[in-house]
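JOB MANIFEST
job_type = single_chain_structure
chain_count = 1
residues = 44
[input]
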Amino acid sequence: MDHLGFIAAVYGSTFVVIVALVVRTVAQGRALASKVADKDKPWT
């Protein structure tokens, strides 16, 4: 129990980094999708 704060901080920072990467990836994907012509989007 001596290292509980350190362990919680590491888990918390890992979670924050993963969420930030997901948000950045989705934002970049949306930005790139807006540059592709509609006829070249088979997923729509």
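[summary]
The mean pLDDT is 92.
The CA atoms of residues 1 and 7 lie 10 Å apart.
exit_status = 0
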